[in-house]
Amino acid sequence: MDTPIGGQIQVSWQAPANNGDALRDYVLTPFRGGAPQAAITLPPGQTSYTYAAENGQDYSFTVSTSNKAGPSETSGASESVRSFGQPAQVPSASLEPTGTNNQVRVTHGTPSDNGQAINRFEYALNGGGFNRLPDSKVIGGLQNGTSYTVQVRACNTYCGPASGASNAATPYGPIGNPSVRGEKVGAQGVRFTITAPASGPNGRPLRHFQFNVNNEGWENVPGNGVVNRGSDYDQAFSIDVRYAVSGPDQETTASAGPVRTDPRPPPPPPVVPSVRNAREREAQRIDDGQGGVCVTTGRFQCAWNDMRYTDLPGGTYTLQHYENGGLVRTYSGVSLSGSGVYRGTRFSGFVDTNFTWCAEGAGQRICG
Question: Could you tell me where the Polar residues compositional bias lies (predicted)?
Answer without folding.
Answer: 62-83, 89-102
